[in-house]
Amino acid sequence: MNVIITGITGQDGAYLTQLLLEKGCTVYGTYRRTSSVSFWRLEELGVADNPNLHLVEFDLTDLGSAIRLIESSGATEVYNLAAQSFVGVSFDQPHTTGQITGLGALNLLEAIRIVNPKIRFYQASTSEMFGKVQAIPQDENTNFYPRSPYGVAKLYAHWMTINYRESYGIFGSSGILFNHESPLRGLEFVTRKITDGMAKIKLGKLDQLQLGNLDAKRDWGYAKDYVEGMWRMLQADTPDTYVLATGRTESVRDFVTMAAKAAGITMEWQGQGEAECGRDAATGKVIVAVNPKFYRPAEVELLIGNPAKAKTELGWETPTTLEQLCAMMVEADLQRNG
Ligand code: NDP
Ligand code: GDR
């Protein structure tokens, strides 16, 4: 079976490529032309040179390119993982984010509608669509209230997937995934910034880690478990919308404490707001400080998902605990920085 994965240079693209190759698929993985393309994630997973992986240059904002990709690959499944996915940047580049993250998904839906409406389509939707949350925990029936240009763009793509399902009978499924992390997570996202920072502090390569809102709470799971859920959504009898989450929420501050512990450091917290800091209990040195430059114009304060529907209907589960995930990430960063 031929499948397309957009955004294979990203975290999820790498894990999904690995999973679908293991399942015997031929993967057409798309990447963007840049002056320095990197396939480091695929290389770390040992799949970059797999003969069943075809790397295809593609930009989500180009409809013609989407049509040619769908035609030439002969794909029967398309996983749309490509996006401008960093919430912070979406405030500075709202237009680009809308073009890629919102209208980009429409380009693929249009290409499917034109070339082969039988193709199954997965849209990478997000818990950021819940934003200023209207219910706790959040599930498939919770009202949306996005709080960033990224969240708004993703909500457009989410509803277009549903609209193409209802208008043209396209098998379009939308996975509302809560935050998922791994040793392959980009350094700009808070978990990896923290595990990389703690590893560097432990190794004497960094004095202090600077963060924004320590009170934000997230439902963090392991990315490798979550790509299995994406695949299950496209193997179901009918297209639908599913939440993938762990059902547990922790603050950024708690994740710092957890990562420090995994690196062999005991944290002590002092102060409040912008004056809050975290000290290494053994040395008394301030190793974590708040820098308002990392605050967002509008924040998503609390996310916690209810994955009951995915469990019941897809048999999806996420066995990895946050402690295991955090330890895995710190261990990988200690090795990379050592
Ligand atoms: P990443 O940011 O790691 O990867 C995004 C991918 O999209 C990269 O391969 C990037 O390429 C590619 N991309 C960006 N712009 C374009 C473009 N114009 N044309 C083609 N490709 C482009 O994201 P993740 O792997 O973490 O997430 C995968 C998807 O799931 C994203 O859509 C994200 O918004 C969504 N999501 C992620 C969650 C998470 O917690 N990780 C939770 C919920 C949803 P390049 O390397 O060149 O930048
Ligand atoms: P998020 O992830 O915005 O939830 O989007 P991120 O890790 O960027 O932020 C999580 C929370 O941590 C707070 N925070 C900081 N964030 C970053 N990046 N850097 C900091 O220094 C920092 N300090 C505190 C943030 O304010 C926020 O509250 C991720 C992305 O993968 C999206 O693509 C995806 O859709 C959602 O997860 C679900």
TrEMBL record:
Residues spanning the membrane: none
Top-level class of the enzyme under EC nomenclature: lyase
Keyword tRNA-binding: no
CDD domains the record matches: GDP_MD_SDR_e (cd05260)
Cofactor(s) essential for the protein: NADP(+)
Reactions this protein catalyses: GDP-alpha-D-mannose = GDP-4-dehydro-alpha-D-rhamnose + H2O
Classification via Gene3D superfamilies: NAD(P)-binding Rossmann-like Domain, UDP-galactose 4-epimerase, domain 1
Protein name: GDP-mannose 4,6-dehydratase
Physiological role: Catalyzes the conversion of GDP-D-mannose to GDP-4-dehydro-6-deoxy-D-mannose.
Originating gene: gmd
One Pfam short name: GDP_Man_Dehyd
Family membership: Belongs to the NAD(P)-dependent epimerase/dehydratase family. GDP-mannose 4,6-dehydratase subfamily.
Domain of life: Bacteria
